[in-house]
Amino acid sequence: MLTYTIRRLVLAVPTLIFISLAIFLLLQLAPGDPMAQVPLTVPPEVKQKMREALGLGQPVHVQYYKWLVQMFWVEPQVLIDYYFGTGFAEGKLRVISWQTRSPVMDIVVQRIPQTLWVVGTAYVVAILIALPIGIYSAYKQYSVFDNVGTFVSMIGFSIPPFFTGPLLIVIFAVQLEWLPSVYNTVHKVVDWDSFVIQLKQMVLPVMVLALQITAQLNRFMRASTLDNLNQDYVRTARAKGLRERTVVLAHVVRNSMIPVVTVIALNVPQIFGGAIITEVIFKVNGIGQLLITALFANDLPMVMTLTFIFAILIVVFNIIADVLYGVLDPRIRYD
Amino acid sequence: MTETSENTVETYGALQDKVPDQPPTSQWKDVWHQFRKHKGAVWGGGFLLFITLAVIVGPYVWTIDAQKLDIRAKDMRPIYVALWDGDAKTGWNHPFGTDQLGRDILANLLEGGRVSMAVGWLAMALTMVIGTFVGVTAGFFRRADGLLMRFTDLVLSLPILPITLVAVTLFRQPLVSRFGPEGGMFIMIVGIIGITSWMQTARIVRGEVLALKEREFVLAARSIGTSSSAIIRRHLLPNVISPIMVSATLGLAAAIITESALSFLGVGFPSDFPTWGKLLADAVSRMEAFPERVMLPGIAISLTVLSVNYLGDGLRDALDPRIRGR
């Protein structure tokens, strides 16, 4: 298992380098010019100087190499400096945003907590709802509960977040006035009242995100439980005279969780991608919203870094899913 | 001697079923039979057919121009609002109301549906063509397998939504200047969706082809000298059609949602060119006063995707010979 994990981790490096190259070339092909917003009165030679100051004068491979160095060598040094107070990265160039002229990673680090809070809560809520419903639907297959559950998760599957978002805002924020429609990111939790406000403003975005994840996980859990319920070991467990509770909860659920856990891990990056739309609707200033604004502002270093962060998430969670599968299921042997 | 021979003849006669109990059924008849049992799938298929026909024929029946501005008849409410609010500005000449510039919402919905459905169907077709091509090539030619599948894995680990956003925003200008604002965007979005969503289909098709090509009928075809391309066309493709159909339904739903999401985020079609996602996005800013402008396109998208998903569910059951006939 350890060898397998190490091999996968080593293989992830060329994958990530290839992905970064693909994104970089895509951005290079783009016709946008960061000087497009500069007033026309600025003479062309000054504009050319400004372009070169942004590092645009050099050939593509030099630019890519410099980005690699900044991303994988300088940024980790900055992180070490931050934690241990050392001075490795002093005076070294970091990836600079064209919008704010400040290091991209500093902005990303400011934005990540908001995304993590919303996405993380939504995921936990979705898991807590989806798994019991999935298990019970499978246990009572074709019952009213199962049919209703299937129908509801089909709907959750089909309604896109950019529709559920406005819909929930109209119902809960406009008509009922129970919840705020905009996520206030500068809000600080200091006491019980401010905690309640934080909770209230998280409800809507979390609901929108959780609805989709719940629908998906519920289907997986149901299918996986159904597969296990007909197995011989279940009959044996019942024949031994175990209580139905024990048979289902201790035997069936534990075995059917194996594929579901990997699906949960595999879906994490997708949720981050899907959170882009939810963040735009509820004005959560997380990394998804950052990506959208950077795109519209033609801020290529920011777009590059953010897209690459999404790619890292995908690669890392793919490895986690595969390794988890091997750890949980002793029948799976990778070596 | 004669007796025994007569006996044998009679035994054979008794054993042989001259007339089969049931008339022979073809595979597609069985599939249709199983498909009809899945109520959701039949409804889904019916609704998909209905909405596709509606957006094709609709603009000829409801002939109001979607772009026509009628500032006197602006901000009209749908006709059903009159049920509980007699003073509301309603009228049968605009059954679904009008927007802030007096454009008829029903006409816009039909026109927008045309674009959304066209993007969905075309992007799905492109996805299937690329996916099937890569899958069959990788499954059939062992030399291409490793390279193509590594490539598929790589593309699978690309962050699709961010990359789509990046590509659409950055390449909008050159395509729009070449093919016009609508045509350029159309090619762009169909292309992007096609290029970024073929991987699952390719994997499924490859798996099927890997198993199929070891079967006897492929060996027989090869031993009478059939060329590789003929084996693929006559023997492999007809046999992988069922998984392709199932993933096509998923692809259609995903394409419609992606197009609407792009329009919603403001990187889709130009603003005077209605699609369902665009109509929804434009209406969000005034949804307190006019909730129907968000609801109607939203419901159109959701119902279409829901029906496509149900259709896929039914097709999966109907095309799986292990489930069929139970």
TrEMBL record, chain A:
InterPro entries: BPD_transp_1_N, MetI-like, MetI-like_sf. Residues 112-321 form the ABC transmembrane type-1 domain. It holds the Pfam family BPD_transp_1_N. It is a multi-pass membrane protein. Keywords: Cell membrane, Membrane, Transmembrane, Transmembrane helix, Transport. The chain crosses the membrane at residues 115-139, 151-175, 195-215, 260-282, 302-328. It is found in: Cell membrane. Belongs to the binding-protein-dependent transport system permease family. This is ABC transporter permease. It comes from Cognatishimia coralii.
From TrEMBL, chain B:
GO terms for biological process: transmembrane transport. SUPFAM superfamilies: MetI-like (SSF161098). Its main location: membrane. Coiled coil: none annotated. Residues 113-312 form the ABC transmembrane type-1 domain. PROSITE patterns: ABC_TM1. It is a multi-pass membrane protein. One of its GO terms (cellular component) is plasma membrane. The keyword Nucleus does not apply. This is ABC transporter permease. It comes from Cognatishimia activa.
